[in-house]
Amino acid sequence: MTEYTDHHAPQGLRTRATVVVVPGRGESHATYDRFGRRLAADAYRVRVVDAPDLDPGDTDGSLARFGERLAAAVEGTAAEDGVVHPVVLVGADSGAVAVAALLGSAGPDTAGQPDAVVLAGLPGRAAPAADGWEGELDVRTSCPTHRAVLTDDPDVRRGSLDVPVPDALLRAAHDAEITVPALLLAGDADPLADLDALERTAKSLPRARLSVVLGGHHDVLNDLTHRSVAAEVVTFLEALRDGLRPAVTVRAGSW
């Protein structure tokens, strides 16, 4: 498998931002094809990289190697005018853990610091014992299309959610002092999520927002509500380009 998969903005449109997606446990590049295509259609440059290799016996080394690969992936998107900013890292599951822990371990002036992050499905506890592949799919998603994508992809490693994320990295992720704007996404039906911990994390950061998806499972970027979640990400990206001021606000009325 190649080190990354790219999704480009439509020809003739100016690229609005660079988005680098970091998959989680067991996932492949193809897991995020739909998400990547949707953001690319809105004129974002999207690059999906390999999931991080997190060695429980060498967490510092794991983060260092992951950081080097991530910096190279961002630099590799450069065109004649350089890398298009803002640069936003989107991590899912263990990818979200690695992104948060990496930013927490680096200073605010570290080279390669992104302009913002999206942390989706940040796990807070070990996965419940899944009853085979169907049980793992039930933890991941209720979207029939995504279930088929995972099932038919030979690069997806089944049973990966049974492999725990190293505790040291989980603590580092939840305690990370992330200084860039952060959007946290979690499903309220995700058995791996600790929503109370995520709320504390969001409140502890200077510029962070926790968005909870009703009925959302662990693969929150690819669940049944993937359109609404992608819209939430795009809203965040657009607000980021304008100093975190949303372009649309509700003045009056109700549904």
From TrEMBL:
Record keywords: Hydrolase
Cross-referenced InterPro entries: AB_hydrolase_fold (IPR029058), Hydrolase_4 (IPR022742)
Annotated signal peptide: none
Molecular function via GO: hydrolase activity
Domain named Serine aminopeptidase S33: residues: 95-224
Record-linked SUPFAM superfamilies: alpha/beta-Hydrolases
Protein name: Alpha/beta hydrolase
Source organism (scientific name): Streptomyces viridiviolaceus
Top-level taxonomy: Bacteria, Bacillati, Actinomycetota, Actinomycetes, Kitasatosporales
